[in-house]
Amino acid sequence: MSYYPKLAESFSELFASVANDRVLVLGHARPDGDCIGSQLALTRLLRAEGVDAVAYNADPVPEALSFLLGDVGIEKFSREALDGSSLIFVDCADEARIGPKSSKLICGENFLGNIDHHISNTNYAHFNLVESDSAATCEILAGLAFDFGWEVDPVTAQCLLTGIMTDTGRYSYAATSSRVFDLSARLVECGARPVNTAQALYENEPLCRLELLQRFLATLRTESDGKVGTGKLLHKDFLDTGAKYEHTEGFVDYTRSLRGVKVGVYFEERESTVKGSFRAETADYRVDTLAREFGGGGHACAAAFSTDESIEDIEPRVLAAVAERIGKVESDPGE
């Protein structure tokens, strides 16, 4: 059985291109499970095939995902890391996703590979292995590894399974397919343990995260006749609780979980920027295009953006855009 026959030629050519190169495996800033899992898994797979590969990220590995770090780590990205290396991006819809400072450093470099599952991907590399029907970049990497007969050791399998588990919402999102379950079963056969991911991510909460969640839940409200759910955190909330930005992972899902809500929006005020996240009931609402209006991107049902505008300015504009989108979808559901 072949999981990704349409990507086979591009992947083969990509691998042939890096055989004698030093490769930097880059992931997006503020990395999540799929990003970290993809970076570590691809680095490990390439090294096992004799390729000189190193993973870099603008931000540190979140504490909850540090259990994935074996004998391969993820280093802090810097100009010195480039040194004429070829770049392979994972889980990045565009090159800017690696972070504002990092993206400036890579101008003019060799954008060799782009492996991703975002519908908003801009196909910015020489080899673009983009499959928007996949639930996770780790799903694509797992499928390609098995298609090419590469050995997947237990640590690599754990990285891939974690990326799949997190980006499918523990196998509950719409993109969760029979292929996802088949690949997950094969990864378990390779030595991955779902319980390890579950305990590390969902049964190991620091108190500061729950204190932050308490503050966030207190802001939840609905608008547009209950069809828009929204909540926010201010920079002061992080200072008061001692929580980190990584501790808000999954908070946006509460905005969409409210009964009757079609699109949920979460606002996060940081020291000098505001991050916005969207979650939609169905792909009809195309929140990836909504996010693009504010400089972001993502998936049809899950997307995000970051802006230098104040939360007071951006919040009403975003909520108005969401209400307009819902109105258009409901007035012409077949559009």
UniProtKB/TrEMBL annotation:
It comes from the Bacteria. SUPFAM superfamilies: DHH phosphoesterases. GO terms for molecular function: nucleic acid binding. Residues 22-164 form the DDH domain. Signal peptide: none annotated. InterPro entries: DDH_dom (IPR001667), DHH_sf (IPR038763), DHHA1_dom (IPR003156), Oligoribo/pAp-PDE_c-di-AMP_PDE (IPR051319). Residues 240-326 form the DHHA1 domain. This is DHH family phosphoesterase. It comes from Pelagicoccus albus.
